[in-house]
Amino acid sequence: MAVSAYDLSGQLDWQYELYKELHRTPEISMEEYKTSERIAEELTKLGVEPVKVGKTGLVGIVKNGEGKVYLARADFDGLPVKEGTGLPYASENEGIMHACGHDMHVTGLLGATRWLLDNKDAWAGTFIALFQPGEETAAGARDMVAGGLKDKIPAPDFCYAQHIMPTPAGKVYISEGAKLSAGDSVKVTIHGQGAHGSMPNLSIDPVVIAASIVVRLQSVVARVVAPTEFSVVTVGAVHTGTKSNIIPDKAEILLNMRHYNDEVRKDVIEAVTRIIKAECEAGGCRQEPDIEFYDQFPLTNNKKEAVDQLVPKFQEVFGDDFLPEPPAPASEDFSIIPAQFGADYVYAFIGSMDPEVVKKAAETGDRSLVPANHSPFFAPVIEPTTTTATSAHITAALAILGK
């Protein structure tokens, strides 16, 4: 990577320490009060007034003459994961970890904000640094919108976000098309009728109904979705019963769906809902099942015209380390923010793992060498990840605002 494109030498030590501090003190989604305060403190030190939006969200607005309005976003919530990395800066908050790299997202965006403030002769317009809570539960972007985001910032012409991934550090990935899937989680409650295990004829058995639903759902992708389309339907949990000789009166199923196409998503949701209701009716339930959707993520889709605005600058700065990104089945709520303004956006991936370790994992087939996001062992290498994450933010901003 052409690191010399930006002189970060005067700020990297600050970024390293900030990253370690954030990693030590993670907070779960929508409870990130101290993290929000810490980000506000850093913005204030930089001379940028932090503006609170929603429960814990923040924006910092930097105006530098006439020009376009550009928004860059970093999320900052942790996960309910017990850290297992053994790092000297491992989480000090029991059972909570930055297992998805959001601490690095904050570090990169704050670093880019500092560089842009120090180099105002390189750009013109308005730069908005947006720090979003609650990405992991799809609550944060909606909370900032509900908290009056549209009234608190100038309408952006272009929005950008990035996420570190378990790929070689120093690499940056951008391309057009669906990048992150739409995601829907569903809680299903089946209302049966309890009875003694020796008297099943007096029951409406929710265990049998739940089992039928689970089996039947396995046919949805195979028989509803065209072979050329992507779809995942996963039953992650079934909860029911307490004792071998008691037929319970309720059963709960938790399932998750992922899609790259909103029309396919609609068809699958209809099929899943139809199967759940039909199996409950077939089982004799006197009450319809409760079907509750939650943690719903929109599709993240990089449009060609938006990608084309960034690619030349990224090619110039990163050279052979700038690569097309494959789609990932994970999900994001970032696109909710540009959608509020009708703005173009691009979502990028940033490599974060030791390239030699990634290479060895590929050669040996040992996947444990490169823990994925959400693993208790997820541990980005601080360098060159910090430099890459910061430089990518700067590059995207200059592609839109640069003189």
Automatic annotation (TrEMBL):
InterPro entries this protein is in? Answer: Amidohydrolase, Bact_exopeptidase_dim_dom, Peptidase_M20, Peptidase_M20_dimer
User: What's a Pfam family this protein contains?
Assistant: Peptidase_M20
So which domain of life are we looking at? Bacteria
Q: Where is the Peptidase M20 dimerisation domain?
A: 185-281
Name of the molecule in the record: Amidohydrolase
